[in-house]
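Thought: the user wants the 3D structure for the chain below. I'll pass the sequence to the structure tool as-is, report back what it returns, then summarize two notable features.
Action: structure_tool
Action Input:
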Amino acid sequence: MRIPSRVFRGLLGVELTCKETKCAAMGEPYCEFKLERYDINKP
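Observation:
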């Protein structure tokens, strides 16, 4: 699931989506997030 992350709009001037790809609570050594430019037409 991709979550729109409007926090970055103020910092970077673009709207991004944020997807967690690794999770320390699920046994990974660290949390990792993938940020992509938000596209309203992308499912």
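Final Answer: Structure generated. The chain has one domain: 3-37. The longest strand covers residues 16-22.
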